[in-house]
Amino acid sequence: MTRFLSGLSLLLFYCSAHAQTAAADVPDEPTNPIGLIIFGVLFVGFCAGFVWMVYSADKKKKAKKEKEERHQASGKTA
């Protein structure tokens, strides 16, 4: 734990020193709005796809569990 805390303090010190020097490297040209739009659409699409996959997997899992419960309730054995 001591090694972790000492490493964390060094990391914070390095990050603060880097932040002070990185402020001078501001890009001269503005960001391309088309690139931002494409990134936004892809990011939202991937997030929506992930949520849909988790939802559908959960739905399938519940349906399978209900089917097994109905099968056991009918008195049949596998």
Describe this structure in words.
The protein is mainly α and 78 residues long. It has a domain at 33-73. Helix content is 79%, strand content 0%. It is built from 2 helices and no strands. It has helices at residues 2-22, 33-73. The longest helix has 41 residues, at 33-73. The chain is flat, with a radius of gyration of 26 Å. The model has no long low-confidence stretch (mean pLDDT 82).
Short précis:
This protein is mainly alpha-helical and 78 residues long. It has a domain at 33-73. The protein is built from 2 helices and no strands.
Which tags fit this structure?
mainly alpha; 78 residues; flat; 0% strand; 2 helices; 79% helix
Which regions are unreliable across 5 or more consecutive residues at pLDDT < 50? Answer: none
Mean pLDDT, all residues: 82
Distance between the termini: 52 Å
Q: Could you tell me the radius of gyration in angstroms? A: 26 Å
Number of alpha- plus pi-helical segments = 2
Apparent shape: flat
Strand and helix order: HH
- Derived from helix and strand composition plus strand pairing, the structural class reads mainly alpha
User: Beta fraction of the residues?
Assistant: under 5%
- Give the strand tally: 0
Helix content: over 70%
Biggest sheet, in brief? none
